[in-house]
Amino acid sequence: MGKSLILVAFLLVLVSIGATTVGADDYKKSDDNKNTPAPVPTPKDQKPAPAPVPKEEKPKPAPAPKEEPKPAPAPKEEKPKPAPAPKEEKPKPAPAPKEEKPKPSPADADATNYDDLTPDPKSGCERAFCKSKGACSYKTLTCPAECPERKPKKNKKSKGCFINCGSKCEATCKWRRPQCNGYGSLCYDPRFVGGDGVMFYFHGGKGRDFALVSDTNLQINAHFIGNRPNGRKRDYTWVQALSVIFDSDTLVLSAKKVNQWDDSVDVLLVKWNGEEITVPFTGDAEWKTDTGVRQVVVERTDDTNTVRVTITGLVEIDMKAVPITKQDDKAHNYQLPSNDAFAHFETQFRFSNLSDNVEGILGKTYRPGYVSPVKRGIAMPLMGGEDKYETPSLTSPRCKLCIFQTPFESAPPSTGISQY
User: Could you tell me if residue 319 is inside a domain?
Assistant: First the structure.
């Protein structure tokens, strides 16, 4: 027991001495470390990183070659289909021709088909015996007391008696001169009132000819004169002559060129088939002829420069030759030369039996259902068509839209037609 204690004590002494020695050494080493740089650590013997084993790239498969377009399959040899057996078409029966009522002859249909009777013994009014077929057939019409004569010599002061033996079957009083605001009128710097009642202007051009009416059996042309002042883009124009072409005949009426206007001087020039004719101033004051198909009458309705043309079954025309007055020239700035009165016509037409396809500047306005293309409500509504209705001459029935069909050769060029 005592020996064990001694041994333990000895071991404790040894342990304490060893600890002191170790502490001193550590202190000394720490001082040395202050003065001596820390030794660079020996680099670890690094094994070089093995080069990465290249990935074994699998070779990319070569892109599949684009499929070349397959050659178009050879067209199948189509066996031609047998043509279908034509259907046995039963011939369509020809349409029954429309039963056209025969047109009455001009002598039967015209409102002026009557015989003159002696004046009424009591009133002195002229009478007529109607020969037209219809409601007025074989009736006697008597002129009203207001206009007892059919042809009063002083047309400006008295109305004339107008006898109509057609569907109206009446005797009425009318002025026998053109009414420039009435249907079918043509006046001034050509201003028209169509068969539809619509007013329009058509300028045309100076020295040129245009178709006013073109139907299968009637052609009416007009010759334009005019003047173009400096700085103006178009001509001022007026109608100086008319030609009426029908059957195989031509009637031309023109106003002679005069330097100064005088109401007492007659300027009318009338030609029948190229030959000048004279319309008398006295008696019945009329020229008439019978072609075997119809009557043609040119009668004076005033002392000078005013006539009514009647071609039975076709047309009646009131015409009056007038000048451009100095007042008109100044008001409209026409700038007309002082040595020319620019005599021209105021005209009004009344037609009989126009066809539904009638053509012409004025004629087309008489078609059933015609709608005027001109602008309404403006001062000067214009109608075009110069290229469609221009004729080679005053007496030619040819133009782009003309429909005159009767075999016809143009009459010889008319003298008295002003080319200005």
Answer: yes
